[in-house]
Design a protein that fits this description.
This protein is α+β, with helices and mostly antiparallel strands. The protein has 3 helices and 12 strands, in the order E-E-E-E-E-E-E-E-H-E-E-E-E-H-H.
Length: 182
């Protein structure tokens, strides 16, 4: 292990250390099938030649389904002489943001906040940045008697129906003791 500034970093098998810096995203948000370019700089701050595997992970902060906290979406191996610095670039697409939804039996790219995590491993994250994604994918949900209120309000289209129709009907039922629909 080595110390870089005030941060601990793991030495590569090449017996040198690397500094990660200047993480930037091409946009603060994307929509539909737009691409997001992720760039950063990696510098060999040790005194020996070394190779580093720069890894990009994504975290979906608002997914309806349970997803891993870090999903590996890309990696690049670079070789640097002592003092040398290189720019590393990744391109994220709608496919990188998608997950397989067993209920719909298809890949879904959901709107929400995502976090880009950059590091030399999943346990050694050095840089982080967030962006928004606005999906343009149409997803239709089948509701039935087993659908929970939580599921109803998790979709913008049915949230309005719950607030304008279902909740007033429940209030009416509670006040009069009658069922709202006969």
């Amino acid at each position: 292990l080595g110390l870089v500034g005030s941060e601990m970093c793991i030495r590569d098998r090449s017996y040198t250390t690397f500094d990660y810096s200047d993480l930037s995203l091409s946009k603060s948000g994307i929509s539909g099938d737009e691409e997001l370019i992720v760039q950063l700089k990696v510098k060999n701050i040790g005194d020996k030649f070394g190779k580093e595997v720069v890894q990009l992970y994504l975290t979906d902060k608002e997914s309806k389904l349970k997803r891993p906290t870090k999903e590996l979406k890309g990696f690049k191996k670079i070789a640097l002489q002592p003092g040398e610095q290189k720019e590393v670039s990744f391109t994220l697409t709608m496919e990188d943001l998608s997950y397989f939804d067993p209920g719909y039996k298809k890949w879904i790219a959901e709107s929400g906040k995502f976090k880009v995590l950059i590091g030399s491993s999943s346990r050694d994250i050095r840089l982080k940045e967030e962006f928004d994604y606005a999906s343009q994918q149409m997803v239709f949900t089948a509701f039935d008697v087993n659908t929970t209120i939580r599921e109803w309000i998790s979709y913008p289209e049915t949230r309005k129906l719950v607030s304008e129709v279902v909740l007033p009907a429940f209030k009416l039922m509670m006040n009069t003791g009658d069922t709202p629909i006969e």
